[in-house]
Every structure is written in structure tokens, then in C-alpha cells.
């Protein structure tokens, strides 16, 4: 429910960048025939990626205006080749355009006026015959066919603020920041624009397919305007984009699936219309226009350029519909170019994606951030011998030397030179970084995003601010204060602690942990910590042994029924971890702990040991964890990393060995646990989240060390718990659980009139648990007769939820409706419940 996680950073960055804003909103000039130099009329003039011409000229002169940025004009007239002009403040007037009948044009998105033809069935559509041949000859990325390959990648990400006016400049927030408007562009319509962020990066890519599969993407150089030390801004910039393959059936934007117009299922979503044959970089190509059959679903519109001989995709344009139902997003536009070295493969050439983002409003005139990412792929080399050491991680890769490149390097590295406005971003933000007021604004949003307030002079973060207050039956009102060391985003060590006080039990609680990473390559780390606290155990199966790991200590302010099943925990932990391979971690924990009931009158953890009755469970154990995150991407190289949004799975295998007699431990036991979690895109039907867990205690242990099927008696959303289970209702020596949660992204509700205007999104879920509990495990506990496992039947819950509740682009509320499927004869159960919470995502 809390929103202090890296995946929520886009929400905060939109709020920040909405204050700082580049625009050119008018352009004029003359159009002539390139051969005769005579003026031409009847020319369609298109602004940016618009599907409709802004004007059709009646003379050789033209003038266009727009409420948004004009960065490109396209000119088209029958029997003439398309001409494109990039617009900057310097060339926006007196543009001289020459149209030629003989020029071979690059890929461009234009509209040739024609009605959408109607066919009795798709087989009558000539575009269908073409697409069938595209599917039959579906190409694979050419990199897969070679034994080895290398190529360079230049990436540029730019944020421009849009749709500002003179009144905005006069706001108090810009007091003492007026100098930023020296970089503005004023237009005839009175709007103002301002560049706010620029990031450039150069990568060397290496790959080997045979004899073994290896890849490496090496960051060679990076240059960021003013935000090198701001984790939120840089992470957000990188986190907006995903790699896509136009031949896939589903394209991933923001981890949301959009049907691909080139996918084999495309005709179920799109109408296709063969427009013409055109020349694309010297190749003859079919130009096919596609439109979604329904504009209120997640889909694109645009053009496909298909080679007339090989039926390869030479290029494509993808533009979102006006009714796009994605939070914080007003529009998406992508241009793709491919090279086709042979009849079976393709190679990426250039990808350009623009995303228009607003934190609140969907209106076209709303103040927004236009985020543009362009990637150029070049210098392909194939079957060149590559040494094994190239694929090995080295310490140099994790240093900051890639930020030390001089201006001369960047002039050579860029495929195209920077515009005047792009160069101004570096200068402006360097000045902003020296301005106290700007730094205070950045700190505010960084605090909201990270959950910590940084005291830079001391190198300390205070927080997390979202855990300051809590309430439970034992402690009553609870105040928690914490801090951690934080000097830079790449700190190799961290010390953190917290202290808490309950006004009902009048007890002080605390926790502290120190960690040090010795090697950035294999992330070899040692850590130690201790805590004394009141916790809600039994709400996680595959839990983390770390002292500062997420717990359910006292965050339940509103709950159904009395929650008396809290435990008092004294715990000390030592651990070491290493990543021998990328995204694969081996961790060994040694833990000594004592557990007793924090509320003996309402909740018993008493058990029998050698005929004696005991109330405290003393435990010493070692835990070996194998954690795999294939495909995960991270920012920073320090002790704490920030994860980019991906569909990477999480796979965990844990073995725990309890040792009797070690530091007074009461039990020998062996436990094995497994966890698998992964989100799957299911075409245009949304995203399915799968969470499977299984485990077994091989020995008899008391309740404090048992596997508890996680319940949730709060009214808040809690991932991977059972909403209608009470705490400790099911206890198991052996267990399996499965959680399936499908997000339809509004697919079903979009069919319902009136309701679809609300842009709500539906969720369906089902959860199940099965387990066994031995008689010995029941007998060891004083109140063992109360506990049982879901053995007779698989316990299950089901329900649906509504997410995306809110207004405009601010739709962060979710409500779930849960039903208990069986075991309905038990006392004090709840058969139906409502959970709610905040969920900040796209």
C-alpha cells in the first residue's frame, strides 16, 4: 500500500518536472518545385506525427500554428516525394521547401486522404494477403544467426516541458529561478517551452551464440544534465522504456501489453488498408495503414512499410489513440527502422519513442512532459572471434569513469549533433544545481519518492517517513523513528537503525544493522544486525532473515476483529552473500532468536519440551538461500540498488537448519522452501501475476517456528496473503500455495456504455493453499488443538477488484472484493471482505 518504492518514481518525477518547461508553436515559409523552382500549391502540411494535415496550401506560401511543440513538418503533394523539415527556433520562419518527384524518401508517417474501404471479409482485403506472407516469413533478430556479434548503441533521452504560458512564469515557485526562462522559446500563441533533462549514453554490445550463449551490454560513456546524483530522475528516465520486437504478438510498454500490428493476431484488433507502394531507403515497399477496430482499447494506429519482394518489415510507426487508458500518459509515438541482411533475419537500425506525460489531466492543453528516447544501432560486426574475458565482469565496469568523457568524445560519438536547445539543457541545469531553491524542490520530491529525508552534510537519511505511526492491540499508538547512512547512491556500506515506542505497553523497541560490500563485481557482502520488537509473524512464508527487511510490525491501523496474535522477538543475525553470476545470489544467514507471545492473555506460544512447559522459543539456525532474478535490471552499483521495471521472475530456494544447543537453542530441525513469482503479458488481455510457494518442515517444531498460511485481517491490500484468513488459522508442516491475479487493463469494462468513460480497470483473482500438520506438531503446542492445516480440501478464495480509480491521470486507488470459498463452518471467520489501498503505476 505504501508508495515509497522505485517503481512509483514516475509519479513523483512528473510532479517535479511539471514545474520546469521548450516549445515552438508556429512556422512559415515557401514551397517550390525542386526542378523548376516554381511555387507549388495544393500541398498537405503535417505537424509532427499528426494523422491529419494542418493545412492544404492555396499558394506557394504556408503558415501553420499549433498549441503544442512543432518540431517537425512534413509536406506531401500528389506525384511528389515526401519532404520533411525539422523545426527549431532558429529556422521556424522563412522555411524554403523544395519538393521533388524523384527523391527517394525515408520512412515517414503521413496520411493520404481516402475512405476506409469496407470488405465482406478479411480475405478480400489485399492487405491481408500481404500480412499473411509477412507472418509466413516471420523474421528473427539477425543477431541470433551468427556465432558472435558486436555493435554500438547510442541512446539519447530528453525531457521537454510543454504547454506553458506567460502566467505560469509569474508563479511564486519561480522566484529566484527566473534565469531558467532565458532558455525558453516564446511563440505566436503565447505558449512557452523549456528543456528540463537530457541523458546520453553509449554502449558496446557483445554476443556469442555458439558454442555457448553469452551477452554483454557495456556502458562506455554517459552524460546527464544536472541530475547525476539524483536517483529518482535518472531512474525514471531509464525506467520508462522497454525493448520491443515488432514481430512479436504483444509489445511491452510500461509492462502493459499492446497488440502488435505485425503480430499474427493483429487482424483481431486492427483494420488494415493498403495505401500505396513507396520507396524506403531505395527499397520498394507496401505502405499499409492500420487502425484499431475499437479506439477505447490499448492499441496503436499508424503505418507499416513492407518490402515488396521479401515481405520484411522495413519500418513502422505506432501512435496511441486519443483515448489511451494508461496513467500519467497522454500519448505514445514510436518510429522503427530495420535493416534486413537476408530473407530470414532483421537488424534494428533506429528506434525513436516519444511519450507525453502529465501527472493529473488528460486534456491536450494540459501542462505536460514530453519524453523522447532515440536509439541508433551501428557498427555491426559478425563472426569475429571474441575472447572469453570480454564477457567476464570487471571492477572497471562499476566505476564512475564512464562519466569522465570530454566534449570532443561526445561530438564524435553522436550520430547527429545536438540542437541549440539540447545544448542549453546542460548549461541551464548546471546553473539550477547551484540554486538553493531548486535544490529544495528536488529534495522534496526525492523525499516523497525514496521515503527518506537526506541530511547531506551528515551523510544521513532520516526515515522511512511512511512508517512513523502505527497502531496495534499490544502497543496501542506506536511511533517509529529511523535513520541510515547515505553519502552517495553508490555507497559500498550502510548502517541503519530505528527505535519505536508503544504508548500502551510503554516499551522501547529497536533495530540496527550494518552491511559492507567488498566487491562491486560479485557483490560479496557481509552484514550483522539485531532487533527487539513486536511483530506480526505468520504473514509471510518465504521471508527474509535480514533485520531491516520488510516486516508487518504495527502497520495495521484499521482491521477486522481484534488482532491479539503478536509476538515479542529478540533477534541477532549475521549474513554473507555473493553473486557468482549476474542476477544470481547465494546468501548464508546465521540467526539467533528468542520468540514469545507479546500478549499472553490473548495469544499463546507456549509449548512442551522434555515434559516441561515453556513460554519462550529459543532458536539458532543457519539458512542457505539461492535467489535468481534472470533478466532483472538495476541502477547503481552500491550496497543498495534500484530495480528497473521488468517482467523478470523471482526464483528462491531456501534451506534452513536449526541446531539444538547452539546458544541455548531448543530444537534441531530442517526446513526446505521454494518460491516462484512472475508477471506474464497475455496479449491484449492484460497481465497475469503468478506466485507459487511450497515448503516442508521435516521435524517437529512449536508454533513460533511453524509455517503459517498468511492471513490478512487488515482492510489494506497485502500481497501474497489470504484476505479472508485469520492470523494463525492454518498451520502446516508441509504446504503449497498459489496466487493468480489477472489485470485486464479495462478490456472488459470498455464494452459497457457509460462505465467505459470512467476508465476503470478490472482484476480477477483466485488463491489456494494446501497443507498437512502432523499429530506431533499439534501435541507440542499447549493450544495445539486449535490449529490445523487445509488438508481435507484445498482452501481457496476468489474475487475481483477495481483499480485505476481516480480522476484525469491521477488514478491510484484500488478496491478488492474477496469471498472465502470453503471451510465456512469455522468460528469467527469472515466469508466476505473488502480491501483497499493505493497502487501507483501506469
TrEMBL record:
<dbReference type="InterPro" id="IPR043741">
    <property type="entry name" value="DUF5686"/>
</dbReference>
<keyword id="KW-0732">Signal</keyword>
<protein>
    <submittedName>
        <fullName>CarboxypepD_reg-like domain-containing protein</fullName>
    </submittedName>
</protein>
<feature type="signal peptide">
    <location>
        <begin position="1"/>
        <end position="23"/>
    </location>
</feature>
<dbReference type="Pfam" id="PF18939">
    <property type="entry name" value="DUF5686"/>
</dbReference>
<dbReference type="InterPro" id="IPR008969">
    <property type="entry name" value="CarboxyPept-like_regulatory"/>
</dbReference>
Amino acid at each position: 500500500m505504501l508508495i515509497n518504492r522505485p517503481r512509483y518514481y514516475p509519479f513523483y518525477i512528473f510532479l517535479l518536472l511539471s514545474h520546469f518547461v521548450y516549445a515552438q508553436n508556429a512556422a512559415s515559409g515557401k514551397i517550390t518545385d525542386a526542378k523548376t523552382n516554381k511555387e507549388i500549391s495544393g500541398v498537405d502540411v503535417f505537424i509532427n506525427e499528426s494523422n491529419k494535415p494542418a493545412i492544404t496550401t492555396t499558394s506557394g506560401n504556408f503558415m501553420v500554428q499549433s498549441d503544442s511543440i512543432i518540431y517537425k513538418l512534413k509536406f506531401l503533394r500528389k506525384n511528389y516525394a515526401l519532404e520533411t523539415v525539422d523545426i527549431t527556433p532558429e529556422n521556424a520562419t522563412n522555411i524554403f521547401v523544395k519538393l521533388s518527384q524523384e527523391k527517394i524518401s525515408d520512412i515517414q508517417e503521413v496520411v493520404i486522404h481516402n475512405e476506409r474501404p469496407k470488405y465482406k471479409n478479411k480475405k478480400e482485403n489485399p492487405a491481408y494477403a500481404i500480412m499473411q506472407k509477412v507472418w509466413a516469413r516471420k523474421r528473427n533478430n539477425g543477431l541470433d544467426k551468427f556465432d558472435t556479434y558486436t555493435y554500438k548503441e547510442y541512446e539519447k533521452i530528453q525531457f521537454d516541458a510543454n504547454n506553458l504560458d506567460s502566467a505560469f512564469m509569474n508563479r511564486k515557485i519561480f522566484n529566484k529561478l527566473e534565469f531558467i526562462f532565458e532558455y525558453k522559446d516564446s511563440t505566436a500563441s503565447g505558449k512557452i517551452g523549456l528543456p528540463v533533462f537530457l541523458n546520453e549514453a553509449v554502449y558496446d554490445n557483445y554476443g556469442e551464440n555458439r558454442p555457448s550463449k553469452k551477452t554483454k551490454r557495456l556502458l562506455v560513456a554517459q552524460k546527464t544534465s544536472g541530475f547525476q546524483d539524483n536517483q529518482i530522475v535518472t531512474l525514471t528516465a531509464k525506467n520508462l522504456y522497454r525493448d520491443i520486437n515488432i514481430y512479436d504478438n504483444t509489445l511491452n510498454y510500461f509492462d502493459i501489453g499492446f497488440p502488435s500490428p505485425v503480430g499474427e493476431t493483429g487482424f483481431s484488433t486492427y483494420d488494415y488498408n493498403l495505401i500505396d507502394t513507396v520507396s524506403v531507403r531505395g527499397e520498394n515497399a507496401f505502405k499499409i495503414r492500420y487502425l484499431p477496430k475499437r479506439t477505447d482499447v490499448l492499441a496503436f494506429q499508424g503505418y507499416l512499410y513492407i518490402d515488396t519482394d521479401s515481405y520484411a518489415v522495413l519500418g513502422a510507426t505506432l501512435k496511441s489513440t486519443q483515448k489511451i487508458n494508461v496513467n500519467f500518459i497522454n500519448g505514445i509515438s514510436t518510429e522503427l527502422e530495420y535493416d534486413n541482411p537476408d530473407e530470414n533475419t532483421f537488424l534494428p537500425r533506429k528506434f525513436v519513442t516519444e511519450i507525453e506525460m502529465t501527472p493529473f489531466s488528460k486534456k491536450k492543453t494540459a501542462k505536460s512532459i514530453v519524453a523522447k528516447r532515440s536509439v541508433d544501432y551501428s557498427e555491426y560486426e559478425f563472426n569475429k572471434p571474441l575472447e572469453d574475458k570480454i564477457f567476464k565482469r570487471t571492477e572497471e565496469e562499476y566505476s564512475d569513469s564512464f562519466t569522465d568523457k570530454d566534449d570532443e568524445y561526445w561530438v564524435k560519438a553522436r550520430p547527429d549533433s545536438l540542437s541549440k536547445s539540447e545544448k542549453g539543457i546542460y548549461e541551464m541545469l548546471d546553473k539550477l544545481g547551484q540554486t538553493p531553491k531548486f535544490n529544495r524542490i528536488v529534495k522534496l520530491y526525492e523525499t516523497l519518492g525514496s521515503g527518506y529525508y537526506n541530511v547531506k552534510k551528515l551523510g544521513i537519511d532520516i526515515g522511512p517517513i511512511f512508517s512513523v505511526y502505527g497502531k496495534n492491540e499490544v502497543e496501542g499508538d506506536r511511533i517509529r523513528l529511523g535513520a541510515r547512512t547515505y553519502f552517495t547512491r553508490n555507497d559500498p556500506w550502510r548502517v541503519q537503525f530505528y527505535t519505536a515506542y508503544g504508548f500502551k505497553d510503554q516499551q522501547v523497541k529497536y533495530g540496527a544493522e550494518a552491511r559492507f560490500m567488498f566487491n562491486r563485481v560479485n557483490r560479496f557482502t557481509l552484514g550483522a544486525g539485531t532487533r527487539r520488537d513486536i511483530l506480526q509473524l505468520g504473514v509471510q512464508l518465504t521471508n527474509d532473515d535480514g533485520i531491516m527487511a520488510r516486516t508487518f510490525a504495527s502497520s495495521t491501523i484499521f482491521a477486522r476483529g481484534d488482532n491479539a496474535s503478536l509476538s515479542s522477538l529478540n533477534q541477532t543475525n549475521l549474513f554473507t552473500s555473493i553473486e557468482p553470476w549476474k542476477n544470481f545470489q547465494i546468501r548464508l544467514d546465521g540467526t539467533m532468536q528468542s520468540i514469545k507471545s507479546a500478549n499472553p492473555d490473548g495469544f499463546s506460544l507456549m509449548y512442551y519440551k522434555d515434559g516441561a512447559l515453556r513460554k519462550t522459543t529459543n532458536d539458532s539456525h543457519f539458512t542457505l538461500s539461492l535467489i535468481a532474478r534472470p533478466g532483472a535490471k538495476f541502477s547503481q552499483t552500491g550496497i543498495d540498488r534500484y530495480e528497473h521495471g521488468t517482467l523478470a521472475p523471482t526464483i528462491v530456494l531456501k534451506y534452513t537448519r536449526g541446531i539444538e544447543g547452539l546458544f541455548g537453542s531448543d530444537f534441531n530441525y530442517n526446513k526446505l522452501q521454494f518460491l516462484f513469482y512472475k508477471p506474464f503479458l497475455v496479449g491484449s488481455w492484460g497481465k497475469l501475476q503468478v506466485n507459487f510457494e511450497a515448503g516442508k518442515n521435516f521435524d517437529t517444531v512449536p508454533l513460533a517456528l511453524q509455517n503459517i498460511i498468511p492471513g490478512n485481517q487488515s482492510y489494506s491490500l497485502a500481497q501474497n496473503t489470504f484476505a479472508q484468513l485469520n492470523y494463525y488459522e492454518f498451520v502446516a508442516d508441509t504446504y503449497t500455495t498459489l496466487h493468480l491475479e489477472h489485470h485486464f487493463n479495462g478490456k472488459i469494462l470498455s464494452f459497457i456504455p457509460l462505465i467505459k468513460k470512467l476508465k476503470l480497470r478490472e482484476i480477477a483473482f483466485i488463491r489456494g493453499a494446501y497443507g498437512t500438520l502432523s499429530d506431533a506438531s499439534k501435541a507440542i503446542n499447549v493450544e495445539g488443538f486449535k490449529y490445523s492445516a487445509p488438508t481435507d480440501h484445498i482452501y481457496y478464495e476468489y474475487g475481483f477488484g477495481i483499480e485505476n480509480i481516480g480522476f484525469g491521470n491521477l488514478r491510484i486507488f484500488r478496491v478488492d472484493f474477496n469471498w472465502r470459498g470453503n471451510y465456512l463452518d469455522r468460528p469467527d471467520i469472515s466469508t466476505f471482505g473488502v480491501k483497499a489501498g493505493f497502487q501507483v503505476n501506469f
